[in-house]
Write a structure and sequence with these properties.
This protein is mainly alpha-helical. It has 17 helices and six strands. Helix content is 59%, strand content 5%. The mean pLDDT is 95. The protein binds arginine. Residues 24, 84, 110-111, 114, 319, 321, 323-324, 327 line the site of arginine (ARG).
Length: 445
């Protein structure tokens, strides 16, 4: 039996096969469960338009569900000589059911099959990312409230500037994640549209019921135009990568802060021993390798949109094998980002802050603006007050008053933790993951 779905009457050169299959046998495993779900929806629709008998559908569904469970247990493999996940699923079906297994491919192509697989996979992964972002968000908000009164210096140009607080520092990264969540939601909505039925990119002469597969798979709508549906390959990945990059950017920045603030010369935070690593030569070392790796991994994820664009740019309309390469960068990115999110949450939870940073007189100048403002509020023109305090600092006679009065929204005296939580909650409520989850449950019932 020919192992290639497209093999006809000549054998494929082995080297060409190795090169063109590339890493698909390994990477398509990410897609196995979703390939099966797509097929379940597709053949249910084929039966409804008379291209499969009811008994054929029954047997094929039972077999597909068994393959799904195999994949769920991590036991689905793509055998030697089999090109990709689509071929492997069809092979398993024909082994069990003979020619009936070959009928499932009516009215579709591997082009729309891989498109739908990628979309089903991605929307699932995005839900996991949302959950992991929310855990980190909650942790940061908790720390922000816990240390709302603990002051630290704020910097501009890495020069001490004005008083800041751990309430502000932790809270800033929480709010950053609330913004990132908007990107994730946009990415999710773009992803949650059905490309199935676009076939090779030009539709089919079978009277496919695309509305039915859209409902069965729990998509919000379809990618209507079949040519556009195929153009979505690469575009979806790039847009989702932008959302992942946004979250990664938040974490990379925070990781750098944490490394800096953990350094002995700063001493603003400390990481518990068990969250640090030692040196093979210097016995005193407790290095923040975790944050360094988070920084590097997240910087790498920030380059993902560009990597994807380098592959998809300048391709004209229609499918090209170039698009296969995007899977190599895209599919593993979710696991890496989730790993960083979990690690950051874990370590933020255990991070301790130095409550006495500003006792050190070297930070006194950061209270200069407070003093200028106090004089100005008492009636002195701002420029005169600025000059007077400046001269005191020059002369070494400036006395810092550590009593701060910051009362406006978003300042250290009024962090707006609830308002920021409200932003996050409102976005999360807009995902409606329950539709996707219910649809998949129904398909497997
Ligand atoms: N492995 C292929 C990919 O990821 C599947 C689609 C193959 N289609 C084709 N026309 N060769 O793009």
């Amino acid at each position: 039996m020919a192992n290639k779905l497209w093999e006809k009457n000549f054998e494929v050169n082995k080297e060409i096969e190795r090169f063109t299959v590339g890493r698909d046998r390994e990477l398509d495993l990410y897609l196995a469960k979703y390939d099966v779900l797509g097929s379940i929806a597709h053949i249910t629709m084929l039966e409804s338009i008379g291209l499969l008998g009811a008994e054929e559908l029954r047997q094929l569904l039972a077999e597909l569900k068994a393959i799904y469970r195999l994949a769920e247990r991590g036991e689905f493999v793509i055998e030697d000589g089999v090109e990709d996940v689509h071929s492997q699923v069809e092979l398993l079906l024909t082994r069990k059911l003979g020619d009936m297994g070959k009928k499932i491919h009516s009215g579709r192509s591997r082009n729309d099959q891989v498109l739908v697989d990628l979309k089903l996979f991605t929307r699932h992964e995005l839900k996991d990312v949302v959950d992991a972002v929310k855990v980190l968000f909650d942790e940061l908000q908790h720390k922000s409230e816990q240390y709302r009164h603990v002051l630290m210096p704020g910097y501009t140009h890495l020069q001490i500037a004005m008083p800041s607080s751990f309430g502000l520092w932790f809270g800033a990264y929480a709010e950053s994640l609330a913004d990132d969540m908007l990107f994730i939601q946009a990415a999710y909505r773009l992803t949650n549209r059905n490309p199935l039925g676009s076939a090779a990119g030009y539709g089919s002469s079978f009277p496919l019921d695309r509305g039915m597969t859209t409902r069965l798979l729990g998509f919000d709508s379809m990618d209507y135009n079949v040519v556009y549906a195929q153009m979505g390959r690469g575009k979806m990945e790039r847009n989702v990568a932008f959302a992942l990059a946004s979250v990664a950017g938040t974490m990379a920045k925070m990781a750098f802060d944490a490394c800096l603030f953990n350094c002995q010369n700063f001493g603003f935070i400390s990481l518990p021993k068990e969250c640090t690593t030692g040196s093979s030569i210097m016995p005193h070392k407790k290095n923040p390798d975790v944050f360094e790796l988070i920084r590097a991994k997240c910087n790498k994820i920030q380059s993902l949109p560009e990597q994807i664009m380098m592959v998809m740019n300048n391709l004209p309309v229609g499918y090209f094998r170039d698009l296969q390469i995007i899977k190599e960068m895209f599919l593993p990115a979710f696991g890496e980002l989730k790993d960083c999110l979990q690690m950051t949450s874990y370590i933020v939870n255990r991070m301790e802050v130095n409550e006495h940073i500003l006792d050190n007189a070297m930070y006194d100048p950061i209270f200069s603006v407070e003093e200028v403002n106090r004089l100005a509020a008492a009636g002195m023109p701002f420029r005169d007050a600025y000059r007077q305090v400046g001269l005191q600092i020059e002369a070494g006679t400036f006395k810092a008053d550590h009593n701060l009065h910051h009362t406006h929204e978003g300042s250290m005296g009024r962090l707006c933790t609830d308002e920021i939580r409200e932003l996050m909650d409102r976005t999360i409520a807009g995902f409606h993951f329950e539709r996707m989850e219910q649809a998949e449950k129904d398909l497997l019932a």
